[in-house]
Sequence to fold (134 residues):
Amino acid sequence: MNKPKIVSFLCNWCSYEGADKAGNARLNYPANIRVIKVMCSGRVAPEFIIQAFKEGASGVLILGCHPRDCHYKRGNYKALRRAYLLKKTLKQLGIEEKRVRLDWVAAGEGEKFAKVANEMTETIERLGPLELSV
Fold:
């Protein structure tokens, strides 16, 4: 069975480094995670997420710095507000809220990155493929 495509937006300063640490440590996480490096999780616009779904993603993962650790001061809080509002919009479009996950992964948390990537893949596999009529 093919693994679902999951587009992942990772902040440059923490989450991307956490993913790199997971790879260097050869931790087990699915290869279906497609990484897009962004300077800050607060930079991930709702349009990016909707576009990912339109282009075939079954899930979207947004990973940023831990609260109070953002290199841009409040970017992760902006991401949190956006994710909350986006989930309401997606629900109206018939897209399950669980297809989008926002979490915090620090640069030294390679194990957490692998855990989140595995959990997200399991969640999306349970939900099945996303069928959009857009």
Summary: The chain has one domain: 6-127. The CA atoms of residues 29 and 46 lie 26 Å apart. Residues 75-92 form the longest helix (18 residues). The chain is about 40% helix and 15% strand.
